[in-house]
Amino acid sequence: MADKPDFKRLRLIQIVAVIVGAIVLFGALWLMGQFRKPELAPIVMAFAFASISFSGLFYFGALLLEGSLQKYILSDDTVIKGGNVDMVTTTAESGDPEIDKWIGTYAFTRNLFGLSLVPILILIGLYFFA
């Protein structure tokens, strides 16, 4: 298969993204003073910043460096079930379990990136309009 992704490169991108996400989480918590006096909204913001950093770095890094995973994404749908909003990504099977695992990780980080922006937008709206 000519389009087989470089698994070592994907693992490196994943490790770097996790490290950057952890640094952003602890940095945001520290800069917002959450180790001294924890509050809910800044903690949610810190987790959102960290998940945006992790998922954005992995998703865009994999897209730019290993774009072969993108061809397995068939569609993205937003499904509203009661009070929940789910992002459903339909993927194609590759036939290789290792590639399928990375396709799942890639699709997860795409959804995480999209859904991580929601709390930030809500908190920004509360800050300006509440």
Secondary structure topology:
Blueprint: H1 7-31, H2 40-65, E1 73-81, E2 84-91, H3 97-129
Antiparallel strand pairs: 1-2
Task: Note down, in words, how this protein is organized.
With 130 residues, the chain is of the alpha+beta class. The chain has helices at residues 7-31, 40-65, 97-129, and strands at 73-81, 84-91. A hairpin with a 2-residue loop joins strand 1 and strand 2 (84-91). The longest helix has 33 residues, at 97-129. The chain is flat. The termini are far apart. The mean pLDDT is 88.
How far from one another are the termini?
55 Å
Over the alpha carbons, how many angstroms does the gyration radius reach? 17 Å
The whole-number mean of residue pLDDT values reads: 88
Contiguous uncertain segments of 5+ residues: none
Spatial strand order of the main sheet: 1-2
Extended strand count = 2
Q: What are the secondary-structure elements, in order, as H or E?
A: HHEEH
Number of helix segments?
A: 3
Shape: flat
In what range is the share of β-strand residues?
Answer: 5-15%
Helix share, percent: 55-70%
Structural class: alpha+beta
Question: Major sheet: size, sense and barrel closure?
Answer: 2 strands, antiparallel
